[in-house]
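Readers of this paper often ask what the protein records in our data store actually look like. The remainder of this section carries one protein's record, kept here as part of the documentation.

:::
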Amino acid sequence: MRARVPIATLLLLALSGCEVGPNYKRPAVDVPGQHRGMAPDVTGQPFGEMQWQKVFPDEALQGLIKEALASNYDMRIAAARILEAGASLGVTRANQLPALSGSFDIQNERSAAFPGSPTFDTASLQLSYIVDFWGQYRRATEAARANLVASEYARRLVETTLIAGVAAAYFQLRSLDSQLDFSKQSVVADQESLRINTINFKGGEYALTDVYQSQLLVQQAQLEVITVQQSIEQTENQISILLGRNPGPIARGLALVDEPHLSEVPAGLPSAILERRPDVRQAEEALVAANANVGVAKAAYFPQIPLTASFGAQSTALTSFLQGPATFWALGGQIAQPLYQGGRITSQYRLAWAQRDEAELTYKQTVQQAFADVSNSLIGYRQAQQYRIKLQEQTHTYEETSRLANLRFKGGATSFLEVLTTQQQYFTSELQTTQAWYTELQNYVQLYQALGGGW
């Protein structure tokens, strides 16, 4: 009974022991009052808090995103890493608990002391426990738990990036589809113009240069069809990989110009970025883990207090295990204090602090980059809208100019060179307008991602 008193006392000390090292506190960061580039007086639910189904209402796109979230390999790898981090946490947390093991031994011994070669059967239980008085294992568990949470935010970052990637690639595909349709229509119209010019040349009304210039229009449109068709199939392959499937065709939904999207985006408060952006949260959890590891390193300066206990029985017959002097037990404890290790402990402590400082700087850098991403996306989205509107006006002007030039040519008031020039301008402007629609929607996707939407 006397031996149990110091053991119980040490256990109580372990439960009430201190935790060396700094407690975590979120570092102060410079949060702006509002996002630069945000339009004034825009109210409503913050864009980053909207469900992605509401942001991307195209049913075909929603189906692609759902398939990607279920089958994309990056998502599945991120989920596996969460399981790894959870198992690592379990391993680390087990250090805080006693370890119990059992053994059974059969030994035949022959000597002068034991004539007749008796067989000894021995069964025993061993209990070992290191008193976590300084909180070394509790700090290590804190770090492992932070790594687990960080892996969960890493999965959310993959999820957000994946949704944005699928949406952007889908909008690019629809942009290419629009370019292909326009290029094919141009081929048909230019071939008709070539046919008419050829007939008129044979009738002696037009010059041979008019026929050649018509051929140039046809060839330009045909080259564009080939180029766009190649880009379409490659973009389909890109989306297929994001979906976790082999390269193949992709289902379409709304036309690019019919894709619903907000004209003005309520960005919300900049401080929400600290909670919404998964990369910011992941960086903070990495800081939490590094902060806890400082405590782990500091605890190495102090003594360890391992406790051991064993109980067992030995007999030459199984029926007499628990009888008489065949049983044995032992209790023990010690204090182990490092005295000299060549500066290893101090260097490890300095290393832990340096890693903690690096993690804090990385967190602050991530926060700052998040504010820059939002501002750039807000500015890009607004400017892309204005650019697309102006291009539409320009395209309409080129279309009308091309129509009038064609009428003038048919009336003999000008050469076919003017028709060629104006049609090339219209063709180029139409393609630029389609690209402008894609750029606007791409900035829309980037803004949603920058605000931490998608999970």
The beta strands are 99-108, 119-131, 305-315, 327-333. The chain is about 60% helix and 10% strand. Confidence is low (pLDDT under 50) at residues 1-5.
